[in-house]
């Protein structure tokens, strides 16, 4: 019932509609687009170095003859996967830690929130920057975990304070008096009741993670070659931006569009899930 | 109040100490300053490298805990150690904080003031065309990461300079050392234009959204209507009663943003070639400079906590309800 109302509201919200449409188009470009282009992302055209966009190379070529169209879409796939994975892990972590801290209280609460404070104080950029290049040869999934590890703290505080009030509600008390263990109450009763907050948070985290990945890769601390992501492409392009702008403009433009469409959806969701909303 | 502040201070100092120590251990175990000396032509004898590294407390042959004790006892007395090539970290940090402050002061103030003004204006003109234009542009700007924005600005500057045939907009460095006096001052201002735009634009978008929401909340409340009803002009009611009350969140964010930007303006500093604290964060890792990395982390942690503390003080100063309780 509730999800139906939410969906109906979402469908009526123009922001969310445009956002979803843009995101679907971008996903299609990232995953179907490579099959339409004439070159593969590993191909190197030794007859065309740094050539501007043309009929043959739609978005131009790089200094080693790679087709910018193919490489950029390949990088976009990686950025999208990283964005969604980081959002999933970090929102999940925020929900579990925040709910546990709020529900159990006492020393569990103190220890968890102190840990969150510590992670907030630690310069996350610096720590990821030191660790991640040393994971060379390791999987990029480590990088996803690192990004997620440093992005759940603030949401977990919000979850904790909402859990504090949920804890005293009748359905939670009833479950507790029936002898259901705490972790089960958290998973079955508390986290589902925070779903609207968590959905919004996860959406915002997607765009945050895409930007975070690009930011770290910009200095060579993120995705390591031969893998490419929008961040590594933007980094490579920005050093040549004055002479060969297509190297920078295509990945940067796609990054902005991606973030913009996710943010639009997030904003629309916020309106649709808000019970006080009149729309 | 005093007991609360003391308790908070102790917990903050503890957090800073732990954060800095963890950063030190991480940097000391994974960075390799020795690589800076090895592989030189002509090759340097290992004994000499060891002696030099020992001197700077960077030798990876010394157990990491021993190095940590040496470092920590120095930090307690206010000595942050030496960089990989033997300069004092304290001097370097002092210089770089100066650079960052010169860059940030104007950028954050412009960002906050313009953002709040734009947001308040949009709230007063709710649902009119100007409100919608402001809202959409803020939304778009917030989706543009600062490194894309900064690179676009250099692209535009190069384009303008090329079409004019002379350098109208400077886009690298802090000033031209060849100039002096008044010329140097205007040259410094010219160098500030693009970095300031790149810093301020995102903040303007951010503050305008917060301020619009807060202002809308306040505008609907009874005390603004009362102010109008007792005969105040619309302008006075808006400025003295509505704007002042709705400033609290923007002010808290301002303190926080300033603190975190001291090390967080990394992209702006790197792209425009300013050698401030943010650029040091990246440079120190690239140059395997353990003590500098630890110093930057220490500084960043102190900044975050001081900023949090300051923003609490600002709320207390602006909001009478907090002050009384």
From TrEMBL, chain A:
This is Oligopeptide transport system permease protein OppC. The lineage of its organism: Bacteria, Bacillati, Actinomycetota, Actinomycetes, Streptosporangiales. Gene3D superfamilies: MetI-like (1.10.3720.10). Pfam families: BPD_transp_1, OppC_N. It is found in: Cell inner membrane; Cell membrane. It is a multi-pass membrane protein. The keyword Signal does not apply. One of its GO terms (cellular component) is plasma membrane. InterPro entries: BP-dependent_transpt_permease, MetI-like, MetI-like_sf, OppC_N. The chain crosses the membrane at residues 20-37, 80-104, 111-133, 139-159, 243-265. Residues 80-266 form the ABC transmembrane type-1 domain. GO terms for biological process: peptide transport; protein transport; transmembrane transport. It comes from the Bacteria. Belongs to the binding-protein-dependent transport system permease family. OppBC subfamily. Keywords: Cell inner membrane, Cell membrane, Membrane, Peptide transport, Protein transport, Transmembrane, Transmembrane helix, Transport. Its main location: membrane. The keyword Cell inner membrane applies.
Automatic annotation (TrEMBL), chain B:
One of its GO terms (biological process) is transmembrane transport. The keyword Cell inner membrane does not apply. Pfam families: BPD_transp_1. Residues 97-311 form the ABC transmembrane type-1 domain. It comes from the Bacteria. InterPro entries: MetI-like (IPR000515), MetI-like_sf (IPR035906). GO terms for cellular component: plasma membrane. PROSITE patterns: ABC_TM1. The keyword Chaperone does not apply. Keywords: Cell membrane, Membrane, Transmembrane, Transmembrane helix, Transport. This is Peptide ABC transporter permease. It comes from Planobispora rosea.
């Amino acid at each position: 019932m509730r999800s139906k109302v939410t969906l109906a509201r979402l469908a009526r919200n123009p922001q969310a509609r445009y956002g979803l449409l843009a995101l679907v188009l971008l996903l299609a470009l990232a995953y179907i687009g490579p099959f339409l282009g004439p070159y593969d992302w590993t191909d190197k055209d030794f007859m065309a170095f740094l050539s501007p966009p043309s009929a043959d190379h739609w978005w131009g070529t790089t200094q080693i003859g790679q087709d910018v169209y193919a490489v950029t879409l390949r990088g976009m796939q990686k950025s999208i996967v990283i964005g969604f994975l980081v959002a999933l892990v970090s929102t999940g972590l925020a929900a579990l830690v925040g709910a546990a801290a709020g529900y159990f209280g006492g020393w569990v609460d103190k220890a968890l929130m102190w840990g969150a404070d510590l992670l907030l104080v630690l310069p996350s950029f610096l720590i990821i920057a030191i660790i991640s290049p040393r994971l060379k040869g390791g999987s990029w999934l480590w990088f996803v975990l690192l990004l997620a590890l440093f992005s759940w703290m603030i949401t977990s505080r919000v979850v904790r304070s909402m859990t504090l009030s949920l804890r005293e509600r009748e359905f939670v008390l009833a479950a507790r008096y029936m002898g259901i263990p705490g972790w089960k109450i958290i998973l079955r009763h508390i986290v589902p009741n925070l779903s609207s907050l968590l959905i919004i948070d996860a959406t915002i985290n997607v765009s945050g993670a895409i930007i975070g990945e690009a930011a770290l890769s910009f200095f060579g601390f993120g995705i390591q070659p031969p893998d490419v992501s929008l961040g590594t492409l933007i980094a490579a392009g920005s050093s040549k931006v004055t002479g060969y702008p297509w190297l920078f403009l295509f990945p940067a433009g796609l990054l902005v569009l991606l973030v913009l469409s996710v943010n639009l959806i997030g904003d629309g969701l916020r309106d649709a899930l808000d019970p006080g909303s009149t729309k | 109040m005093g007991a609360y502040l003391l308790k908070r201070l102790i917990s903050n100092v503890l957090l800073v100490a732990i954060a800095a120590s963890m950063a030190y251990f991480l940097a000391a175990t994974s960075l390799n300053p020795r690589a800076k000396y090895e592989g030189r032509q002509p090759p340097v004898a290992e004994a000499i490298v060891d002696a030099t590294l020992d001197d700077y407390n960077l030798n990876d042959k010394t157990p990491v805990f021993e190095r940590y004790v040496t470092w920590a006892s120095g930090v307690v007395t206010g000595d942050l150690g030496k960089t990989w090539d033997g300069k004092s970290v304290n001097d370097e940090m002092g210089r770089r904080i100066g650079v960052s402050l010169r860059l940030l002061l104007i950028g954050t103030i412009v960002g906050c003031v313009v953002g709040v003004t734009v947001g308040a204006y949009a709230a007063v003109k709710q649902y009119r065309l100007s409100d919608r234009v402001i809202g959409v542009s803020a939304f778009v700007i917030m989706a543009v990461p600062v490194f894309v924005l900064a690179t676009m600005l250099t692209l535009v500057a190069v384009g303008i300079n090329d079409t004019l045939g002379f350098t109208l907009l400077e886009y690298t460095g802090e000033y031209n050392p060849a100039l002096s006096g008044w010329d140097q001052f205007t040259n410094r201002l010219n160098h500030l234009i693009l970095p300031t735009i790149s810093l301020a634009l995102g903040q303007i978008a951010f503050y305008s959204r917060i301020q619009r929401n807060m202002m809308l909340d306040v505008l609907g409340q009874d005390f603004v209507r009362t102010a109008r009803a007792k005969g105040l002009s619309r302008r006075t009611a808006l400025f003295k009663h509505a704007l002042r009350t709705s400033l609290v969140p923007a002010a808290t964010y301002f303190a926080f943003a300033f603190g975190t930007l001291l090390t967080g303006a990394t992209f702006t500093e790197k792209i425009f070639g300013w050698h401030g604290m943010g650029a040091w964060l990246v440079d120190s890792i690239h140059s395997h400079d353990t003590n500098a990395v630890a110093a930057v982390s220490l500084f960043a942690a102190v900044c975050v906590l001081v900023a949090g503390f300051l923003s609490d003080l600002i709320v207390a100063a602006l909001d009478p309800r907090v002050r009384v309780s």
